[in-house]
Amino acid sequence: MQKSKLTLYIFIALILGVIAGYLYNVYVINAINTKISAAGVNIKNIDNRLAGLKDSTTAAYSQLKTRRLAQVNISKANDNLREDKLEGFTILSDIFLRLIKMIVGPLVFTTLVVGVAKVGDIKAVGRIGGKTMLLFIGATFVSLLLGMLLVNLFEPGQAMHLALPDSHFTTDINKSALSLKEFIGEVFPKSFTEAMAENKILQIVVFSLFFRNRDGRYR
User: Fold this and answer.
1) Which of 82, 95, 162, 171 is least enclosed by beta carbons within 10 angstroms?
2) 181-212 burial string, b = 16+ CB within 10 Å, else e?
3) 125 pLDDT band (50/70/90 cuts)?
4) Residues 18 and 115 in one domain
5) Would 75 be classed as within a structural domain?
6) 209 or 21: whose pLDDT is higher?
């Protein structure tokens, strides 16, 4: 009975969160989003007009550049204002996510230690691990497929009018492939404390499996 109540509370909280976000967006953020959207449209129109001018020394070109700078400033000012309006919600979400991350490592470690200890036979643990890996890969594939379908169907964030970065900005993403040595380093922990502190789940799993004594018991 207690579990069903907890599930009910979670669904109620989700619904209330959606309603609160919608009302806050309509009555507080909508005017700011409208200004950001209008500034974005004006910047795009000015860019098109600038592309049609071949001489950058004319007065018309200078006026368009000045107008573009003004629209960029308007967009940035309203974007900062929106961030200030949403600061309270971001603080709450940050606290919630930090609390979740805080219990992930200990939860995984204790669950594996107790679960494998109850199984006893290490061969049975291997079979269970193989089935778990297959289920994990299957669930990952389904979640990715479902995410792509829902994103293309509902297009979340389309009405948020987020400012796009300039085309010359780089993402600073390392595109080099993960080497075998780096992969091994990510699997086997050099410090259990570090793995727990940084929430490196795979390293925690490996340490949990090596936590056994020779007699089959755990330390």
Assistant:
1) 171
2) eeeeeeeebeebeebbeeebeebbbbbbeebb
3) low
4) no
5) yes
6) 21
